[in-house]
Amino acid sequence: MQHRQMNQIIRDSKPPTEPVETPWTGGEELKYFWALANNVFGREHASARVYDIIGYRFKKAKLHEISRSDFLDLLVEFRLAASGEGELEKVLKKLGEQGGKIRWLQRRLAWTDYHLVKYILWHGKKTDRKIDNINWLIGSDKARGIITGMSIILKNGGTKNGRTK
């Protein structure tokens, strides 16, 4: 299935008016979802990571238990992560060892790139009010604050949106 077709499906999707057995509309959509998950997390880790995210964010045990809108949100997040859009990867590579530590904490917290960026922006706005992108981490010692904050969240059990309880 082409990216263009999937974009159209996502744009045209309306919340179901009746209960639906599964959050996906057909086999092609599910295949696309797992292809993206394999691309983002690697084939050997995709299944475990997807179910970690589902359990952590939605408090569900199975993919078919989440809602259609949650499924589409995951699909969009995986598509963005797979396409490499955004600055996150560049920023984390420039941070070197600190970037690796942030990625490690991200995996432990079961955050997608979207949630990590949201947390970094939230932290930046909390410390410097004029932050509107994640590049503020480069060339500063503020990555240490991100690592400390993520470590505290992990120690306290974490949350789905990157904020403390």
What features would you describe in this structure?
The chain is mainly alpha-helical. Helix content is 62%, strand content 0%. Helix 5 crosses helix 6.
Helix and strand layout, with pairings?
Elements: H1 3-12, H2 27-41, H3 46-58, H4 68-83, H5 88-95, H6 97-109, H7 113-127, H8 143-155
Helix pairs in contact: 2-3, 2-4, 5-6, 6-8
Order of helices and strands: HHHHHHHH
**Average pLDDT figure:** 77
Summarize the biggest pleated sheet. none
Net shape: globular
Cα(first) to Cα(last) distance is 40 Å
The tally of beta strands, per DSSP, is 0
The fraction of residues in strands falls at: under 5%
Seen as an oligomer or otherwise, the chain set is single chain
Helix run count: 8
* Low-pLDDT segments: none
Class from helix and strand fractions: mainly alpha
